[in-house]
Design a protein that fits this description.
The structure holds two protein chains of two kinds. Chain A is an alpha/beta fold. Chain A is built from six helices and ten strands. Classes of the chains: A alpha/beta, B alpha+beta. At the A-B interface, helix 1, strand 3, helix 3, strand 4 and helix 4 of A face helix 14, strand 13, strand 15, strand 17 and strand 20 of B.
Chain lengths: 252, 527
Amino acid sequence: MLSLSGPFEMTGASGSPVLHEVLSAPGHFGAAAGFALALAQHLTQHQGRRGPEAALPQAPLSLAWLRQQAAMIETGDVHGAGLASLGLDAAHVLLVSLRTSQDVLCAALEAARCSALGAAVVELTRPVDLTASRRLKLAAEKSGVTVIVLGHWTSARANAAQTRWLVRAGPSPRAADRGSCTSFGTGFGKSPGSSAGNGPWPRPAFDVTLLKHVRGLPETRVVVEWDHEQRSFIPPLPQCLDAVSGERPLAA
Amino acid sequence: MPYLVSDRWRHDMAHGGARNGAVPAEPRPLVFVEKVQGAMRIVAADAAARAVRLAPGMALADARARVPALKALASDRHADAVYLDRLAETALAVTPSVALDHPNGLVLDIAGCAHLFGGEAGLVARLQALLRVTHGVCVCRMAVAPTPDMARALARFSRISPVFADDDERVRALPVAALECGAEDARALRRAGLKTIGAIAQRPSVLFTARFSKQFTVKLARILGEEDRHITPLRAPPVCRAEHRCAEPVASSPVIEAILQDLAQRIAGELQQRDEGGRAFEVVALRSDGAVRRVAIETSQPTRDPAVLLRLYRDRLIALADPLDPGFGFDLISLQVLRSEPLVPQQSSLDARAAQNGEMAALVDRLSAMFGRARVTRLEPVDTHIPERTQWARPALDAAAVSAGAKCAAVSGAVLGPPRPLFLFGAPQPIDADGDDGHGAPARFHWRRLSHDIVAADGPERIADEWWRTPSGFGTRDYFRVETVTGQRFWIFCANANANAAPANAAMISGPQPASARAWFIHGVFP
């Protein structure tokens, strides 16, 4: 099974990116949030983590999700079972809902200083400016927390984020194979063309564009899927051939 | 031992005048009326009205006939209760144990507090001054006695004020009305020639138990000081408390924080002796004009570290809606521990899991102190299959320890059942769906002024209402996980799915109802 590791490979003792920015195309916020959570799990698993938690591969990720109340009205509340479908344990997720974006940045700074936290997803409606993002980066580097800024805006602004992604919802491979509706009348029927994974249910697919990477990788666009059991990204087989270039060890 | 102070307010003047601030003194007699059994009767009268012998219970028409220049206002019991609560709050400056003594009094337990004010007389004077200055209480009758019932009787029925009683000699001189028993009992006692409580006390109590009731005798014993009872204070007395009286009023925050540091260290010493750590703390600051300012701090794990307390206090101050304005300065600053739990010094374990938990708890404390405990939550599963009810957000301060037996199945990696959306709308939003793909799902739908064409749909998944709980309002739902042309995935359902089924023979002929005829809603968004 090919595993995409070019821009997703973030190993390295020092200098590994800790501040990431995930933007969503208009209307695709659900996909962006899902990708941000998947990215958080992927990074904390494969990145060299400090402290004794590195020895526990299957330890549940403790994540803090900082939201703004205005965003909650628009996108809806976080669903615990949905977190489980992505591979997170809802008992280890801390949900903070705040009034203004200033409060969110303040809380994000607090969370970035707590080394017991695995990752922090900071959801904002206004772009982060340079000073705030630099402060976040410094705090995250010191404590080893992965900070992902999830933005409701699409235009990129110059800030200290080390990687920047633009996410859209990717077409599920089952739809491409089938081309029309499936599994009807029988309830949760099995579809013959589904890829292996969580039973008859297709994995969530994201169409991501890497806009900026601290190591200077070129802008690439790829469609990936998220396997919540293995906690890794898997490109669907038809598209992996035109996937991103860059150093990419082929692990069979 | 000196035990209690019992006060009584004639708060008719107080709640008529002082509540509105600077109201000019009302020259006319003031009464408060309420409709009792069809007639307007007086329930409260002020000093001027009592001087012309207008008493509660009199009908308003009679009162007006007697005193034409009467001013009558409707009585507002709720405002009276609020006012009494505020008076109780002020009285907390004198002693921590204050209870309401209906309808218009307070009972305070001053055991151990009198020496701080230079004796009981000093305490009474200070309390009177506080109440007069802060709330405009003009007349306040006070009594200090060993038991609460004796103090209440003395305050209400004795001719002089304040009364300091050590034994029951003064109580015996009180009239029989001080027993506050029913009208017939009072009449019976009067007919028997018993005018004072002392006269009743001289007779053997068996007679009264036989004639009246056991309650009567108990009340008599309490008033005479033979039997004692505890008052239930409004605020639970703190577990431990340290206070600092300032020589001159303090207004600058560095000084206040220095004082708090000192208090926190004293509290830490006391908690250490008990092997406990506090979970809820309160900083109470009394201003020189009598107003009380409180700052509450909570932690998710018991602690007695002064540095942690100071830090949380500073975080809480940032988040306060109205700042801790000292006015002319604080006279008294006290730190109380409201709730404590056993805290044993923990050995640092080899895998440092305890340290991680401690750090997470510290983060939760800080965020809760800065933004409020309701904003920092964790999701907890609820045993139901209605999607919008399957979880509730519990403040993270309460869910201190991550429960090991969580029903979440994600720990093992296996997701039971069909996947659920990441975002769920609290209230499903109605959408316009039309077209039909022949399998029950629509071909396109309109939501938020956008049209989405469906290319794939999974379902239907039927979720019925739980008949043993309140209905959700949507009946039996058929859920579909649909994917649109752009790749977005939504969770939509059709409400009242079983009601829409046509009768059996008709269905076989014409098929199920078209999608546009049913009520469709969107419930969630998949990643």
